[in-house]
């Protein structure tokens, strides 16, 4: 496959490849061999009818949990969402301080931290049924989806914990032995089309954040993304991207969590 093919796509001009969340996939440089198409961020949810002033940082969450024991939990790794929460804590605080934080949080959680949800779906059910006051997802539009399905109350709102948000980008790539490389590049380029990206970001469709740099778009193209800014169930600002751990650090972090937190 030609070197740097992803940067040579016509619509790649709308992508900021200097953005670390685009340039590196779990800290592995993509080197123009992967084309971004969708963005994810670890977003939390609370019900403003129950928590009118939610915590805005990890430290505030811990203080809130001390005052409201049993009302917070997260899925047990290796569930992807639960692992993402652990990784955010570790990335934001550093590994040693992060695990000290997780140990302090554990007995304050739902059912004293002795039983954790097995999945994001189970956590969503607990939140939707009022058993806990927070949910979370690496899908930045999950509050919108859950309210639309009637799983979350219409007073649910998305929020971040801290100024830096664990972020990730999804890519498409082309195998070296692909039989239709040119056709695959056409599809990759189509996924970056500003019109398609705007439809994907539309709250009435998916509400998924774009991978495009809006400053690179013409005014008429930028206006297509305005609808996403009008939804109370989507965040207009996802904060500063917090890069993912290197891929080879994920399994050791999950193993340490199992030893020290799950026990």
Topology:
Layout: H1 20-23, E1 24-25, E2 28-29, E3 34-41, E4 43-47, H2 58-67, H3 80-93, H4 95-105, H5 120-128, E5 134-137, H6 142-149, E6 156-159, E7 164-173, H7 181-191, H8 194-201, H9 219-223, E8 240-242, H10 247-262
Parallel strand pairs: 7-8
Antiparallel strand pairs: 1-2, 3-7, 4-5, 4-6
Helix pairs in contact: 3-4
Keywords:
263 residues; alpha+beta; D-Maltodextrin-Binding Protein, domain 2; 2 domains; three-stranded antiparallel sheet; 10 helices; 8 strands; 14% strand; globular
Question: Any overview of this molecule?
Answer:
The structure is a single chain. The protein is α+β, with helices and mostly antiparallel strands. The chain folds into two domains: 6-40 and 176-236, no CATH class; 41-165 and 241-262, Periplasmic binding protein-like II (D-Maltodextrin-Binding Protein, domain 2), CATH 3.40.190.10. The chain has helices at residues 20-23, 58-67, 80-93, 95-105, 120-128, 142-149, 181-191, 194-201, 219-223, 247-262; strands spanning 24-25, 28-29, 34-41, 43-47, 134-137, 156-159, 164-173, 240-242. The strands form three sheets. A three-stranded mixed β-sheet has the order 3-7-8. A three-stranded antiparallel β-sheet has the order 5-4-6. A hairpin with a 2-residue loop joins strand 1 and strand 2 (28-29). Helix 3 (80-93) crosses helix 4 (95-105). The radius of gyration is 19 Å and the shape is globular. The relative contact order is 0.21.
């Amino acid at each position: 496959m030609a070197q740097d093919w992803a940067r040579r796509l016509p619509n790649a001009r709308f992508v900021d490849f200097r953005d670390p969340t685009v340039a590196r996939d779990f800290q592995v440089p993509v080197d123009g061999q992967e084309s971004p198409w969708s963005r994810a961020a670890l977003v939390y949810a609370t019900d403003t009818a129950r928590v009118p002033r939610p915590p805005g940082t990890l430290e505030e969450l811990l203080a809130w949990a001390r005052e409201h024991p049993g009302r917070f939990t997260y899925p047990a790794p290796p569930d992807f969402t639960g692992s993402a929460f652990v990784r955010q804590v570790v990335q934001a605080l550093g590994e040693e301080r992060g695990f000290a934080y997780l140990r302090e949080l554990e007995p304050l959680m739902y059912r004293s931290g002795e039983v954790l949800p097995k999945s994001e779906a189970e956590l969503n059910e607990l939140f939707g049924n009022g058993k806990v006051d927070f949910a979370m997802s690496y899908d930045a539009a999950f509050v919108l989806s859950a309210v639309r399905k009637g799983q979350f109350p219409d007073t649910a709102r998305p929020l971040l914990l801290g100024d830096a948000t664990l972020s990730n980008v999804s890519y498409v790539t082309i195998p070296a032995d692909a039989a239709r490389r040119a056709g695959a590049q056409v599809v990759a380029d189509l996924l970056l089309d500003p019109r398609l990206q705007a439809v994907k970001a539309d709250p009435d469709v998916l509400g998924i954040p774009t991978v495009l740099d809006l400053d690179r778009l013409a005014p008429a193209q930028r206006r297509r993304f305005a609808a996403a800014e009008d939804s109370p169930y989507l965040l207009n600002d996802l904060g500063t991207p917090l890069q993912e751990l290197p891929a080879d650090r994920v399994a050791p972090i999950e193993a340490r969590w199992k030893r020290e937190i799950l026990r």
